[in-house]
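Archive record
______________

***
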Amino acid sequence: MVECVTNKKVLTKGNYAIAQAAVLAGCQCYFGYPITPQSEIGEFMSGKMQELKRAYVSAESELAAINMVIGAVSTGVKAMTSSSSCAVSLMQEGLSYATADELPVVLVSVMRGGPGLGNIYPSQGDYFQATKGGGNGDYKLIVLAPSTVQECVDLTYKAFYLAHKYKNPTVLLADGLLGQMMEPVEFYEYPYPEIDNSQWALSGAKGRDGRIIRSYAPLADNQCVFLEKLYEKYKLIEENETEWEEINTEDADIILVSFGSTSRNVKTAMKELRNRGIKVGFFRPITLYPFPNKRLQELAAKTKKFVTVEVNMGQMVNDVRLAVNGVCPVELINKGVGAPPSAAEIISKIEELI
């Protein structure tokens, strides 16, 4: 098992990086069920959490795991689970309940091929699952998408912070490639302020009035009021937490848009196309929700075309098209599952488009 080492770079697999970062972020409880390609997260936690006298449970199912997390975070502590694709599907009801209950659940989703059981190869086919949701009702999950093993650390820290800051389930959306690859990373102290949960957490009344956390609202008017309040929160998240990376967009005729590990090949392709005299820019949403709609709208007024590159059959491309709103064309370069399109393949496709 890899040890938590801070303030120096170590060679670490993506899954171990996420697990170590969760520990350093102060995660007190981990509940999970093994599934490739994220099983190393639970493996690491099974040793480290017990060593630190924190809670670790290998749940009997993913359904049990998400409900254990709901129970733990209702007391105000930091808790998480991790899973992959078809298994995250089993958690959708729990995520809907956690959103309605306004609970700071952290879920790490390491995507694999689908639909159904699919296979263990990398994929980005769960973009819809994470950003649109499979549970019932009007709700949003905060979704963060790392592109490097270092960002697996950085965004795991941020996932815990945002979940507790906004009392909203937060997803770290990685993929099988990122979970299994090894890169030098630096671990450091949790950089965010701790959030005071004492005003809502269930900790025993101890002489004060009791508290209830529930999602059931028997009267339609009450539910409408609650939904309005929930969407005011989502608007606040969009205003304050939308994050992206962009390079060479100021004069770009074509802007390549991608997320996660696929962005690495896209960035390489952009640099080579620039060397060939083709004005190509690069744009990477880091928060998939909130999605950087406003910035894409601004760029649409200056560029001639967007091209999204994804390892799925075309999912994020729909959000880019909605953001651009017909101002300029949006094309798709994709592969269904497996290793992302290579830089050479992306370059060839762009040259065809122009």
Q: What stands out?
A: The chain has two domains: 9-205+228-240, 245-353. DSSP finds 13 helices and 15 strands in the chain. The domain at 245-353 is CATH 3.40.50.920 (Rossmann fold). The radius of gyration is 21 Å.
